[in-house]
């Protein structure tokens, strides 16, 4: 798993996390630590670009749900974008497609993050 953090150029208060690879048991700790760092920096408007994400296990999905709740509780928003069809099917089966704001790409996510 690789995570890149950058501010959205047009809206620097929005953080873009680009996640690629897999979120499985061995990646869970670094994934959690990254999210903890983001929240400690009081960053609650987040776009997660999942274009390169191949797999996420149930614990990783749990971390996404917790992140969504933290953002919402703090007056922010977590938007997921670039989700491949396999992961989208998983989100749909788990009824998470109705919970998370989702976008096709970064441009659409930028419009949904406020």
Automatic annotation (TrEMBL):
InterPro entries cross-referenced by the UniProt entry: Anti-sigma_ant (IPR003658), STAS_dom (IPR002645), STAS_dom_sf (IPR036513)
Domain STAS: 4-113
UniProt cross-references to PROSITE patterns, sorted A to Z: STAS
Record Pfam families: STAS
Domain of life: Bacteria
GO MF terms, alphabetically ordered: anti-sigma factor antagonist activity
Family statement: Belongs to the anti-sigma-factor antagonist family.
UniProt name for this protein: Anti-sigma factor antagonist
